[in-house]
Amino acid sequence: MSEEKSLNFLEEIIEQDIADGTNNGRVHTRFPPEPNGYLHIGHATSICLNFGLAKRYNGKCNLRFDDTNPVTEETEYVENIKNDIKWLGFQWDSEFYASDYFQKLYDFAVTLIKKGLAYVDDLSAEEIATTKGSTITPGSDSPFRNRSIDENIRLFSEMKEGIYKDGEKTLRAKIDMAHPNLLMRDPLMYRIKHEHHHRTGNIWCIYPMYDFAHGQSDSIEEITHSICTLEFIHHRPLYNWFIEQLGIFPSHQYEFARRNLTYTVMSKRKLLQLVNEHHVAGWDDPRMPTISGMRRRGYPAEAIRQFSDTIGIAKRENIVDISMLEFCVREQLNKTTNRVMAVLDPVKLIITNYPEGQEEIFEAENNPEDPNGGTRPVPFSRELWIEREDFMENPPKKFFRLAPGNNVRLKSAYIVRCEGCGKDAHGNITEIYCSYLPESKSGNDTSGLSVKGTIHWVSVKHAETAEVRMYDRLFRVEDPSNEEGNFKDYINPDSMNILPSVYIEPELAKAKPGERVQFMRKGYFCADTESTAGRLIFNRTVTLKDAWAKEVRKA
Ligand code: ATP
Ligand code: MG
Questions:
Q1: Residue 220 is part of a domain; what is its CATH number?
Q2: Does 441 fall in a domain?
Q3: CA nearest neighbour of 297 among 44, 533, 31, 524
Q4: Is residue 184 helix, strand or coil?
Q5: Is 221 within 8 Å of 94 (Cβ atoms)?
Q6: Dist CA 432 CA 438 (whole Å)
Q7: The pLDDT value given to residue 2
Q8: Which of 95, 104, 438, 509 can bridge 464 by disulfide, Cβ–Cβ 3.0-4.6 Å?
Q9: pLDDT below 50 — which residues of the chain?
Q10: Residue 477 lies in domain
């Protein structure tokens, strides 16, 4: 984070709090995921924000699993969430679970009942909804609203004992059924759910609502700045009301706008559908906007942090162009990846004047952006694979690659002059003939020739093969959730194109899963998590340039 950058509104609030000595200048944030899915890029911005503020102000940041809903939560998600946060480069100060507080929350509820501020209601969910009123009409009191404190204590305890069925009773805060804010009209605090919980098992059959769990958990942990997304803004008065009535540590809630990204969907519910209905191979499919998907695709953690920093935070919802994220990915990969040669769509090139059986090893520079990047050996011989598109028999003007009579440099090797090509019975080009200039060797070129085109190649004799998965955006429209019909109607049918046998230079066969490289002139790629020495698999992380921007210009 650059120091000259002006403060965002949360930093302003925090700096003011520090100046005022609020909480003795202490800053303590938390990241509170619900373990009901994998983290996505929206969560990543919240992680960078919460951990980033703690770091910047010498504070602390907790990881708290917001696991108050037993139905949707799973331990598998907990482990993956922790893994993703660590991979992003953050370490929490303490790890907590809202479910650890079930007893404390229960005691808080009893305190409110004793103060005459909560009651057990027998109305059904539908009845509660219809008696809520609307923004223009007040709600009406439940006939059970004025139960005695003793009766409420007995009934609430019976709810806990499991005497009642799901939905038979609820605990509600006694606030004001005519309050202008509908959330303040006697909101639910507890509901009965005879469900197994991933941590507390079958101990509890009543579970606190979000509004009665979140603020109290913040307060128990003495969180100073509880940052959440904008949809909770109307919950803030309730957040404060519970804390005030209980007289517990005054945590404060602040809201910022949810981050959305073009050409994807972000809600866990929708992502779960993509997984369950096999539109993708899993939560970590490289096309998913999940952190695990982006990692598998080859996005560096630095790029995601840089992206979060760049987009900053806002008070209004907006949708960020995915090309900004891709820009950050390219910028990081350009600095850090080795350039290697891989031929995706091969045709054979024969150097007619290079002796048969002769071989040379060139030391090729790994990364021109990195002076300490070193070199690697690349074998060269008479027959090479090159890209089919790098040859044209009848080229247009300004085609600087191979065409009869053209000179082209073979990267890290020699200049060759194209002499022509061989064809099969159908007229398809099967091989290309060139002669080479021995005095034009890279690094020791005395030919005096200057050539306009440089192409990559792989020696036929030394080539290894790999499966390459060419990934593209998962959706073909900017905002699939906002289109007519179902978001799944807008899945990009070309979001994955598998090239079963791509020729790669032999050094690349050593790539370990997760290793990132640039296939020269072709894009950035990453060895897949399932890649092995016996079956190499590379994922395309991102193209070298923004191909979609070009499409838009062409259109
Ligand atoms: P979803 O709607 O995708 O299921 P959620 O809000 O239910 O997300 P949680 O696990 O409750 O997911 O979120 C944990 C934290 O991450 C919350 O503080 C939430 O506000 C924040 N968060 C979730 N999605 C985004 C987003 N798109 N942009 C910024 N922050 C987000
Ligand atoms: Mg949520």
A1: 3.40.50.620
A2: yes
A3: 524
A4: helix
A5: yes
A6: 19
A7: 47
A8: 509
A9: 1-2, 551-555
A10: 268-338+466-554
34 flagged as catalytic: yes
- At residue 444, the 3 state secondary structure works out as coil
Instruction: In whole angstroms, give the CA distance from residue 513 to residue 527.
Output: 5
Same domain (yes/no): 150, 237: yes
> Does this model's pTM top 0.85?
yes
Alpha carbon distance 20, 529 (integer Å)? 50
Tally the domains of the chain.
Answer: 3
Do residues 193 and 113 share a domain? Answer: yes
Q: Residue 547: what pLDDT? A: 67
User: Helix (H, G, I), strand (E, B), or coil: what is residue 244?
Assistant: helix
Q: Looking at the structure, do residues 27 and 41 belong to the same domain, yes or no?
A: yes
C-alpha–C-alpha distance, residues 76 and 32, integer Å:
16
Tell me what pLDDT residue 73 has.
74
Degrees, nearest 5: CA angle 333-78-96: 110
244 counts as catalytic:
no
My answer on whether 239 and 132 are in the same domain is: yes
For residues 444 and 518, state if they share a domain: no
Confirm whether 263 is domain-assigned.
no
Q: Whose CA is nearest to atom 26 of ligand 1?
A: 42
Q: Answer with the one of 456, 482, 505 that is the final residue of a domain.
A: 456
Q: Is residue 239 part of a domain?
A: yes
What strands, in cross-sheet order, belong to the sheet with 415-423? 453-455, 407-410, 415-423, 429-436, 346-351, 383-387, 458-459
Distance from Cα 254 to the centre of ligand 1, integer Å: 14
Closest to 392 in 3D by CA, of 362, 423, 355, 420: 420
Sole residue written with tokens 């990195």: 370
Q: pLDDT tens-digit profile of 416-447?
A: 999 999 999 999 999 999 999 999 999 999 99
Catalytic residue among 11, 15, 34, 467: 34
- Where do the DSSP E strands lie in 80-182? 95-97, 118-121, 170-173
Would 161 be classed as within a structural domain?
yes
Strands (E), 424-547: 429-436, 453-455, 458-459, 464-471, 496-504, 516-519, 523-527, 537-542
Ligand 1 pocket residues where CB is under 6 Å: 32-34, 42-43, 45-46, 66, 228-229, 258-260, 266-268
- Nearest CA owner, ligand 1 atom 1: 267
What pLDDT score was predicted for residue 553?
46
Residue 313 DSSP SS3: coil
Q: Where is the domain boundary, 231, 256, 281?
A: 256
| Residue 519 bridge partners (DSSP) | 340, 523
* Torsions phi, psi for 506 (to 5 deg): -60, -35
What does the H/E/C string look like for 337-358?
CEEECEECCEEEEEECCCCCCC
